[in-house]
Write a structure and sequence with these properties.
This protein has no helices and 11 strands.
Length: 116
């Protein structure tokens, strides 16, 4: 059974940085895309960043230029480097793996809290 486990969340001040990691436990093949989503209190889950198998990345406008997504294919791990954090970045961050067979895996989330 494949599980995604996020780590790296925490409480920081505005302007600080955090690095989130998400690793897959168990054997997983055919990953097409890895991504990070977030859900703030009272809001819908939104896409933060994605990286596809070829290495192309895409970012939400709100984080573009501040966040960087990267992946280690050998370790089935995806990272999210978050710089210049703002209070509005406060949310639970979820990682997602989309496979070529259309199967989707989600992590349980890691909380990021940014104080002003």
């Amino acid at each position: 059974q494949v599980q995604l486990v996020e780590s790296g969340g925490g409480l920081v001040q505005a302007g600080d940085s955090l690095r989130l990691s998400c690793a897959a436990s168990g054997t997983i093949f055919g990953i097409n895309a890895m991504g990070w989503y977030r859900q703030a209190p009272g809001k819908q889950r939104e896409l933060v960043a994605t990286i596809i198998s070829g290495g192309s990345t895409d970012y939400a406008d709100s984080v573009n230029g501040r966040f960087t997504i990267s992946r280690d294919n050998a370790k089935n791990t995806v990272y999210l480097q978050m710089n210049s954090l703002k209070p509005e970045d406060t949310a639970v961050y979820y990682c997602n793996f989309k496979l070529r067979n259309s199967k989707n895996y989600w992590g349980k989330g890691t909380l990021v809290t940014v104080s002003s």
